[in-house]
Design brief:
Elements lengths: L4 E6 L1 H18 L5 E7 L3 H9 L5 E8 L13 E3 L9 E9 L3 H11 L5 E9 L12 E5 L5 E2 L15 E4 L1 H6 L5
Parallel strand pairs: 2-3, 2-5, 5-6, 6-7
Antiparallel strand pairs: 1-9, 3-4, 8-9
Bound molecules: guanosine-5'-monophosphate.
Length: 183
């Protein structure tokens, strides 16, 4: 375990099994169709990479990056920093996100992408923290449900670090108070 963590919540093996399970469900649900997977950068990267490797239907990949806001001062205002490269009109679109917390980011994504007239639009999140929800959003595929804890690893960061950890864990107090960065 990384020295800045106090515990591992979801091990590498559990993640692997959970992601394969999601990929199996997605492959069955979209059988005979072509899937457009839209990843929300940067948190989606490790999850999306492992997920699509296990999806058996024809798949296109595209990405969006949205401005993040600090949870305590959340206004629900989200800005697009990087938009999709391709049109999604008449496509079967699956949004892939690392974690749904308040749900405000996903609500914005759904509203925005709906205006581009996809054939279908669904959400796949690796992690869900339902107790923190501020808005009701439809999530079709959920990997793991968490209680209200701030987690890092497998794409999720704290001050830009820990995304590369192959498991999901909780930081220890000293690390959070010390505000460690790479710079
Ligand atoms: P929401 O709009 O649902 O409140 O927030 C979604 C975004 O908040 C996620 O994409 C992620 O960037 C960030 N976030 C929410 N909870 C956590 C967490 O426990 N750990 C990390 N690293 N980021 C989180």
């Amino acid at each position: 375990m990384h020295k800045d963590l106090q515990e591992i919540l979801i091990s590498r093996e559990e993640l692997e099994a959970g992601v394969k399970n999601l990929a199996g469900r997605i492959s069955r649900d979209y059988e005979g169709r072509c899937l457009t997977v839209v990843g929300v950068l940067k948190g989606c990267v490790l999850f999306m990479s492992d997920l699509v490797k296990n999806v058996s239907v024809d798949t296109r990949l595209d990405f969006m990056m949205l401005s993040s806001y600090s949870g305590a001062h959340s206004t629900g205002v989200v800005r697009i920093l990087l938009d999709l490269k391709e049109s999604i009109e008449d496509c079967d679109v699956l949004i892939v996100e690392d974690i749904v917390d308040s749900g405000l980011t996903m609500e914005y994504m759904l509203q925005n992408l709906k205006t581009r007239r996809p054939r279908s639009l669904e959400v796949c999140t690796l992690l869900d923290k339902p107790s923190r929800r501020k808005t009701d959003i439809p999530i079709k595929y959920t990997g793991f449900t968490l209680e209200d804890k701030f987690v890092v690893g497998y794409g999720l960061d704290y001050n830009g670090l820990y995304r590369n950890l192959p498991y999901i864990g909780v930081l220890n107090k000293e690390t959070i108070e010390g505000k460690k960065t790479c710079l």
